[in-house]
Write a structure and sequence with these properties.
Elements (H helix, E strand, L loop, with lengths): L9 H15 L1 H15 L5 E5 L5 E5 L1 H10 L5 H9 L6 E7 L2 E7 L5 H8 L3 H15 L6
Parallel strand pairs: 1-3
Antiparallel strand pairs: 1-2, 3-4
Helix pairs in contact: 2-5, 2-6, 3-4
Length: 144
Amino acid sequence: MFGSTPPETGDNRWKRQLDLFVKENKQELAALSWGLWLENQDTQGTIGINLKPTPHFVYCPKSAIEALNNNVENKLQEILGLVDAHNPEKEVLMIGIGEDQIKLINFEPEIAPPTCYEQAATDVYTLLDQLEERLNQHIEPVKN
């Protein structure tokens, strides 16, 4: 009863898969996060992982998050607070976008993002390609 796990549905399958992907790629995600920060600061918005049509990285402009927050009766207020308080030198902040749902990805890696980027010894576009390839191996596309 209390220890039982609810049956997995499409709604939570992508979230579990995304959690596993993040867990297995923390340093690379931190490197990507810092590399994109160096390139754009926060002019493009928060990094997102859009699962449709196939998993890929996108930017989520703050104005779009604010508009979504207004559409859902301010239920995303905490996410906006995290976006405002985000410290890219210490933590990774991304938004997973699934079928009519979002999932916040926020963690502080063991090694600071600037060091992760330095250790990756590659450019941000190579990191993007590598991580998108891994995303597609880990996460089933969200079906309509």
